[in-house]
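Aim 2, interim progress. The first record below pairs a target sequence with its structure tokens.
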Amino acid sequence: KNIILEEYDVDKILAKFEETKKVNLLDVGAIFIAGPFAGLLTQGSKFALLKNEVDKKGKTEIKAFSSVWTFKNNKAVAKDVAVKTSKNIIVLKGAINLSNKKFDDIQIAVLDKNRCAKFMQSFEGDLTKNDIKLKENVASTFLSPLTGIFESAGKLFNDCKPFYSGNIK
């Protein structure tokens, strides 16, 4: 609780994401949310943060942090992995296959006030080959120009399925 993360203003980075959609949520997650697996996420990787494409000015006050993982069948499964800043709650779900060092349905989301995913990205890839990319399907690629319109319209309705039910409030 009340930890200061130097060099990065995560809330500012997320505000930029909200405006432009040009920052990968994995970049934010790689900063601090992956807990004991941050080394796997950042080792030899090509994330924007490591290329200095995200402003390294500022700091982030971490109000609350949870990194609870279970280990089963050679997988590290995120049970309650979240961080709360002054303005946002960021959550990681999914698993990392420790045998082949691949993501298993990794999702990173920024929550709204109803604990629903305001923004969410899914990732796939092989951590040993530095081959990590956004997981996309044909429909989302085809509809991407309309995403902003639907996101705005979706905010008019409060009916959503909460993405996160962990301990961070």
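The second target in this work package is listed in the same format:
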Amino acid sequence: MIGKKEIGKFLTLNEETNAIDYLEKAYDFIKKTEYDHWALKWVILSLYGALYGFAINSLRGSDPSNRVIYKIKNGKENLISFKETIKRCQNPKWMYMTSLSKILKLSNKEKESIRRLSEHYRNDFVHYRSWFSPIK
């Protein structure tokens, strides 16, 4: 979704407020993990949503029309993938919009953590794959 979407009379969403909401929800669920074993699932989903949202915002810059980050697929517009979004945030070609712009620099450990968050934990929860594994 580019721009705002109003739901009812009281809620207005855009990419930035949605990312902030995801981050706030992650914090709320982190506090619950000691007594609610389901909270960890929501921590993972919320962190993924926040990271994806902030990455999309970084690629767009301050002008929503500056970066067209949608692609046409079967006549439908979709956001670029999470993986592509993180990749572009690390690419100077996509990130250097102003003299203050910075590219995302990730260590190998951070890259692996993001990959596991997305490809293992988040995707398993969203696609209802059963697993039992300690989360480290």
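Helices lie at 15-32, 39-60, 82-89, 92-95, 108-126. This observation will shape the mutagenesis plan for the next reporting period.
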